Amino acid sequence: MSGRPEILFPLFSEVEALQGVGPKTAQNFAQMAIETPRDLLFLLPYSVVDRRTRATVKGVDLPAVVTVEVTIGEHRAARNRGGAYRILVTDAEIDFQLVFFHGRSRYLESQVPEGARRVVSGKVELFDGLAQMVHPDHMVPLDEAAEIPEFEPVYSLTQGLTQKTICKSVRSALARLPELEEWIDPAQMAKENWQQWHRSVVNAHQPNGLDDLDARSPSRARLAYDELFAHQLTLALARQTERKARGISSIGNGRLQASVLAALPYKPTAAQSRAIAEIATDLGSGKRMNRLLQGDVGSGKTLVAFMALLVVVEAEGQGVMMAPTEILARQHLDGLRPLAEDAGVVLELLTGRDKGAERRAKLAALERGDIHILVGTHAVFQQDVVFHDLRLAIVDEQHRFGVRQRMELAEKGQGADVLVMTATPIPRSLALAQYGDMDISTLDEKPPGRKPVKTAVISTERMEEVISHLRQAIAQGRQSYWVCPLVEESEVMDLTAAEDRFKRLRAVLGEGIVGLVHGQMPAAEKDAAMAAFQAGDTSVLVATTVIEVGVNVPNASIMVIERAEIFGLAQLHQLRGRVGRGSAESTCLLMYQAPLKESGRKRLEILRETEDGFVIAETDLQMRGAGDMIGTAQSGLPRFQIADLERQAGLMAVAQSDARALLTTDPALESPRGRAARVLLWLMRQDRAIRLISVG
Ligand code: ADP
Ligand code: MG
Description:
Rossmann fold, CATH 2.40.50.140, binds adenosine-5'-diphosphate, alpha/beta, 18% strand, binds magnesium ion, DNA damage, 696 residues, seven-stranded parallel β-sheet, isomerase, six-stranded parallel β-sheet, ATP-dependent DNA helicase RecG, 25 helices
């Protein structure tokens, strides 16, 4: 199938092909990202207006939308320009008025002559004790009353569009709806009581009351499932393609691993050993690995990653580990290098900072195979970085990168096995949406001896107390992070807040005790500040959220977060994870600016109650919504128009297993159901999947 199936053509024409849509309306639609009838149909009404006819306005709780049969009475033209044109009307019980501004009397007299019977529908309100309907939405002779829908859908609008226009265009789009073959598993259809696609789209746009707007209503649930299924099918196709691609089999001899483990002051946890074994199996198989290592902050992912890298080095290949920030890349280097050197493994760092001759020398060594493991930022995937024999690519803190970037990485790796690591525990539905194409290893256990972090929620009004507490802690040799708020999205504002706080703390705590690190600092200064803190030369590190991911200073036992109420829960959890890594009791102070809203208080309370990243993540999702939680744009999380990831987690899981099952029995999508699924992929604009099935 090289192009869009013909049966979908009517849905992919220009919107101007719809009745009542001219260039102006088309422009308005474009502002809402509606470019085709298909897009319009995926915009579902968010409310309905009850326009069922009643006998009288009498007794109705006003203001309210009322539909009623009336006899037209006297017309009273406006007394002055801009005045109201009034028509007295009588329903079964009482009199009221229809009111028109700028009403043209000739037109109104011909449309609703005195003595005529009409059905009128519109919002009735009391004005000076009189019931009146200003500019009725509908005003039709009795024999046309059926034209007024009992329940009129309400759409979200952009400037310049009216409900009337949108309803009319939707009706015209519905008239083009093709009947499509079913792509959903018949058992699933029956179990959920779903109707065929065509019927479901119509129902969704012609709700019969508020219940039909519920995400759980059969029509909406089915359309949501279509979205999830199309997405999972894309991921499953990607997974199938990747596994088909011949991977490289890397089998280690265990020599380097054993030597490193012997040098470690601790033993791997059971969870770490399990993950290391799962990865080694993948590396040794001829299939290409595409695996996610998920583990809460501090669960020890770095060791697992290093063991995996050692397998490929033992097999005489190379590995690369990419971190999202310079600080993290450098930290990996500092942490791993001593271990690597003892084992005779050559580890090198490459970041955007490497320039000129030094960079060229590193690249040459890499190409010769003299560097075994390359650690760095995204710079490691620049065009001119060539490996001698790359076997394994690891991406740390994957949540900073999107699905698309990850797939690109896999493509660049030319058959290399891929391991991505994330410290952001995410709810199952989101994990499936984001990582549905991968296999997952989970570190569900933390290294022993971790003490819980004492978490307190306090107002910024108590800043002085906090500072004096800090002074005592410093005297005891403890170290502390002080995180400044993310003010709006602006790095510059971030900076001022952090710099001001730095100056103030330096003034009260003393010169040389306080360090500062933020994203816009020159690289060398950043390193120096981190190194000084790591070495214990400074006791307090004032920082923006650059320290959010991965930074590891075990002696730091206090985390102060200013304006905690404006951070995301997952982010706060990450930040708190920076302490509680050593043997000392740790404290996390979440400072808020009073007054704190009820919802804000609730969110911070959760952090006080639990350190379980998964519980925190689920709560965050419930309270904020999926897009907000990960920041859709940066997460690469697909944007679902109808599906609701918070409430339809179950459907996502079904979609994944169904998509994988379909591909197992019909890998090329050639059965009748497979062909129907292809149409779905086109309908849902799943370009990537379409590319995969076109070549496959
Ligand atoms: P994360 O999963 O957040 O990346 P790290 O890999 O940075 O965690 O590990 C956190 C800390 O725990 C490090 O100081 C590391 O040396 C230590 N660590 C890792 N594994 C173990 C273990 N099995 N026992 C004790 N400490 C460990
Ligand atoms: Mg880490």
